[in-house]
């Protein structure tokens, strides 16, 4: 875990570590490679989002991240693996205060994205 250093550097380290983990994942890696044309640019966008979320900066001006994920074909396993990679990256790179806030935000985002991106479960047959 990063400690007393620059919080912006810790956020970028977290973003890079997260993508390293995801790109090595057999489910997430192919999806990320298919959707992200320029990883260096993408890292900057994602770092700006987390800087805004964790430090209150105003660099992220792309609206809600949800709209950028709407077209993805995802299943529950994507979310499980995404959260595991994010949690590991956060634990390895962010100081405790930022890590706690990042995990709260990520859990909230994951729940919201699940609700919006996963199909509704089929209703159970009614018995009379």
From TrEMBL:
It comes from Novosphingobium album (ex Liu et al. 2023). This is Group III truncated hemoglobin. The keyword Acetylation does not apply. InterPro entries: Globin-like_sf, Globin/Proto, Hemoglobin_trunc. It comes from the Bacteria. The lineage of its organism: Bacteria, Pseudomonadati, Pseudomonadota, Alphaproteobacteria, Sphingomonadales. CDD domains: TrHb3_P. It holds the Pfam family Bac_globin. Coiled coil: none annotated. Keywords: Heme, Iron, Metal-binding, Transport. The keyword Metal-binding applies.
